[in-house]
Amino acid sequence: MIFHRIVVTNLFSYLGEQTYDFAADGNGSVALVTGRNGYGKTSLLNAVKLLFLGTDDKSQRRVGFPPRYLSRREYVLGMERGWAGIRNRHAEASHCSVHVELGDGERVTFIATRSWTFNGQDFDELLSVHEAGQAEVKNAAAEERLGNLLPRELVPYFFFDGEEVQFLAEADNKARSEAMERLLSLSFINGVSAQLVEVVKLWKLEALPHEVQAEIRAEEGRLASLQSEIMTQDHQRSDLQRQLAELAETKDALRRSMDGLRTGGGIADSRRLEGEVEGLKAELDVELDDLATILATDVPLLANPGLMAAAQAAVSKVVEAKAQAANSVTDTLHKVLPHRLLVEPPQPREPLTEGQKAFLETKLRGILDSYAVTDTGPAPLLDSLDLKQARGLLHNLGRFNGGMSVLRQDRARRLREASSKKARLERLRAELRDSQTGSGEKAEEYRRLEQERDDLGRTIGKLEGELERLEHKLSTSAVVEKEIAARLNALERRHHLAGVTNERLSIAQALRETFAEYRKRTRANRRAEIEEAVNRHFQRLMSGHRMIKRIRIDEDFVMHFMDADGAEFGQLTVSHGMRQLAVTALLWALKEVSGRALPIIVDTPLARIDRDNQMNLLRHYYPHAAEQVIILATDSEIDDEKFKVLQPYVGSRFRLENPDGQSTRVIRLPSNEEGV
Q1: If DSSP codes are grouped into helix, strand and coil, which group holds residue 83?
Q2: What distance in Å separates the CA atoms of residue 505 and residue 566, rounded to the nearest whole number?
Q3: Where do the structural domains in the chain lie, given as residue ranges?
Q4: Which of 25, 249, 418, 653 is deepest in the core (most CB within 10 A)?
Q5: CATH fold for domain 1-150+611-676
Q6: What is the SS3 assignment for 523-572?
Q7: pLDDT digits (tens, 9 = 90+) for 260-318
Q8: pTM
């Protein structure tokens, strides 16, 4: 199956109706679309993906850098800043659309159109599908027909950006594994097995008491809700992992760009300056941390001297009043208490001697003197203090107010010193940049890249924190999931009635086990086929390097790179270009093993791959990857030399024009015309 026509109207960079008519005037399977960056190649890829996925699909709403996901409304209508929406910003019409016509090499058999109609701050999205020999269908029925042609989880395997292709094989998650199974026509087994599981559960449930059935259904509801939450969290984790991988690649590219700007003329001086920068930065960090702690306490007090003086006066009055009260009470007790204790009846049977009385009176007066009087009951803030506390507070306020001028001068001095060190640090950094990059435009570019690198580092740190929190949530959810499953099993075992599970349960269980075994064996066989094909194609695509001896495909269809001794490489040990070639070999193998006759669209086909291996891709992969391969490339990717290699396989050819960035025009070129 091939695209006969793709029509993009007022969508992204396409203003008005622009048509790709893929009627071949050459002999090959390749449709070559070239244009400068920003001329509309990626807009075409996104338009086709949007047709198959719609705006409900979250992956389509991923925009910007660092990447983030917009709401459906934001994605379609746009935002005030950063994203203009899907409709061409210069379009006067109230609608935009993408239309495709597919079929065999002779005739169109499948037509699909997805359109958006705008009404102020609202919009309607409509999908219509018309298959040969059948009536046109729309919306939900059309989505089902489109999904039968190309299931949405398989869209990234047929329409992709060459720079981002490696996530297809490196993302280790359930969604990717399910996509692989559907690509290899294994998913129907999972569907049958799932139905059998549900049937067996229903039959078992019917044999249990009604109150137990209700308890089990409640637990199953909690389990289903938790599993849905886990699936969402797993998708979020995959998104974060992908973003972090992309940001790490970008940061590495920035580092290489910065290294390229270094002149290398002052290496010795640069090393000295680097040492000074690191030392001063560490010293400044310690001082700023100390100041942050001190100033958090001091600044509010130093900034309000009038308030502090008033507080001291108020506390002084409280101390004076409490001291007077304490003295008055103490005097009274000194006079009254000894007489009442030692003279007034009742007295002990054996009268105290005068010496004993004198001793007790002295001791009693000492005890009275050692205790301050504490007020009781609710009172204002200062009045609630006892005399000892009030005197302590007055002492501290007096010391602070008396030394406020000196303290203010000290804090100002330390702030000036910190500011001076920071300025010195910036000067040293500037000297370091100059020693490494020289001056003028080159140095300015280095400073810009340095700032971008630092911003990127902060973003990476933030995302790593989010990923850590998400991993903790997933770990907790997994524990709860096991607990609920255990409770369900316990309920079923506790109330299981022997003999009630009749022959139909035994048959259903046997069928389920049979399908599971069939799936296991078929999956293993297909995995082996894919592994063989991946290694065969990788050897054709990769030249001049034999670091990777073999690529192993595990049970979840994840690639592992092995050396000649059978040891596995870490993913980061393998260069981006080599990983891209390996994933290209995987896509080729999947296409071959699955037997699905669908076209391929690839944007930026030769990104980050060295020239020799680019030639291998042009000779061996793109002409044979599918019945139709649409290549979206810049003129620098497909220069005259590369075009000569590819030209025998080109069936149709287009050039994009877009001088203002918002009005892509599609120009058909003769396939046999020489030069890009």
Answers
A1: coil
A2: 46
A3: 1-150+611-676, 291-418
A4: 653
A5: Rossmann fold (3.40.50)
A6: HHHHHHHHHHHHHHHHHHHCCCCCCCCEEEECCCCCEEEECCCCCECCHH
A7: 776 554 445 666 777 788 888 888 888 888 888 887 777 777 777 888 788 778 878 87
A8: 0.62
